[in-house]
Amino acid sequence: MKKDLDWSSLGFGYIATDYRYSSKFKDGAWDEGQLITDSMITLSECAGVFQYAQTIFEGLKAYSTKDGHIVCFRPDLNAARMADSAKRLEMPVFPEDRFVDAVCQVVKANQDWVPPYGSGATLYIRPYMMGTNPVIGVKPATEYEFRVFATPVGPYFKGGAKPIVIKVSDFDRAAPHGTGHIKAGLNYAMSLHAIVTAHEEGFAENMYLDPESRTKVEETGGANFIFITKDGTLVTPKSDSILPSITRRSIMYVAEKYLGMKVEHRPVYFDEVKDFAECGLCGTAAVISPVGRIVNHDTVIDIPAGMEEMGPWTKKLYDTLTGIQMGSIEAPEGWIKRIC
Ligand code: PLP
Ligand code: COI
Q1: pTM (2 decimals)?
Q2: Which one of the listed residues 61, 167, 183, 316 is annotated catalytic?
């Protein structure tokens, strides 16, 4: 039976669900893994995760479909990206097929926590991995734990689909060189001061520029950018130091194949931003969140789509993407993994 939650008023927060998955790596091998009920983790004070932030994570969602199934969206791409993250931080790769299986096990075991179709909420799934044994010299751990938990969530930004106001960050994300394209704890920790500063000033998010020239648009703290030109072309920044968002890659495909839009994936200069007709943030948590205004100190860019609702192309992309995820629009081959 579904849990008794007020699904449509959920925000983006953590609620402990009943089951999580754990698999441990020791002596060069992963154990068989299992579902467990304990949400707590007890580790050595000297564990690699605490001393040198050897920790990586992923994020994806499970959806209730119109016809009563529970599915998740392209989990194989999260598995592949987590493998890339692991290699970059000298961690053992959790086999990609086992990653997908672990995600499915956690969703199935927690199916009473999957928000109903049409509630506006979804089940957010967080796979992660950390170095668990003591390391005091700067070197990788030799023992690891891979975990997956799930938590029901509502919209990432307060106000749901209302356009948000963001600022151009004066801070760089200061990711260690070359790690911007993976999802690692340290990258995100280095963005916390910038996000707290932005929130204190009343902004919903930061637009990060490339740290070298500060002329190109990178991404935000938790999502990639999409822009729409006045003639209906989708433009999205290409950079080696942003996360290769699965949502953004899916939107590029949807724009071209479902909506017949022209798609440009290329460096985007901040100077161009004032000329776009629509702007949005895209990601698993953000889905597609419209941006109405971008502030860079004294310069205020009002996106023509305005502060009341999503622009027309953003709305079409949003409806098509979420339609595919929730089963009302036919998905491209292999995008939807049915769990139960
Ligand atoms: N960029 C950052 C920094 C993120 O944290 C996320 C969220 O995972 C994204 C982009 C969007 O990626 P995805 O669409 O794979 O969720
Ligand atoms: C996601 O969209 O899955 C993210 O990781 C963004 C944020 C919650 C960190």
Answers
A1: 0.97
A2: 183
CA 156, 225, 155 angle in degrees (round to 5)? 10
Confirm whether 108 is a catalytic residue.
Answer: no
Tokens, residue 302? 């009002």
Among the bound ligands, the one closest to the CA of 223: 1
Query: What is the number of structural domains in the chain?
Result: 2
Written as six digits, the tokens of 23 are 């698999």
| d(C-alpha 154, C-alpha 156), whole Å | 7
**Among all ligands shown, which has an atom nearest to the Cα of 125?**
2
E strands in 84-192: 122-131, 144-153, 164-168
| Residue numbers of the domain that contains 118 | 7-153
Give the amino acid at 129. Answer: M
**Which among 82, 224, 284, 289 is the best mutation to test ligand 2's pocket, defined by most ligand atoms within 8 Å of the CB?**
284
Q: Strands 234-237, 263-266: parallel, antiparallel or unpaired by DSSP?
A: parallel
CATH code of the domain covering residue 115:
3.30.470.10
Atom of ligand 2 nearest to the CA of 188: 9
- Spell out the per-residue pLDDT of the chain, length 340, in tens: 999 999 999 999 999 999 999 999 999 999 999 999 999 999 999 999 999 999 999 999 999 999 999 999 999 999 999 999 999 999 999 999 999 999 999 999 999 999 999 999 999 999 999 999 999 999 999 999 999 999 999 999 988 789 999 999 999 876 655 566 789 888 788 899 999 999 999 999 999 999 889 999 999 999 999 999 999 999 999 998 899 999 999 999 999 999 999 999 999 999 999 999 999 999 999 999 999 999 999 999 999 999 999 999 999 999 999 999 999 999 999 999 999 9
In a domain, 1, yes or no: no
Q: Which of 153, 179, 210 is the last residue of a domain?
A: 153
Ligand 2: nearest atom to the Cα of 285: 2
